[in-house]
Amino acid sequence: MTPQRPTTLLTGGSRSPGAGIAPELASDHQLILVGRSAESLEPIVRESTPSRTPD
To answer: pTM of the prediction?
Structure first.
């Protein structure tokens, strides 16, 4: 059984300091990002999401 990563709720995820810490936490946490708009969160999500290689 694989251990589950901790979940972190990050408010202000599209601005400092939330935007700065999201990529750091993403490596070993499941993130819930909250911001004023989906558009403002999109770049943070892209930066915080590990790239996947096709099988």
So the answer is: 0.69
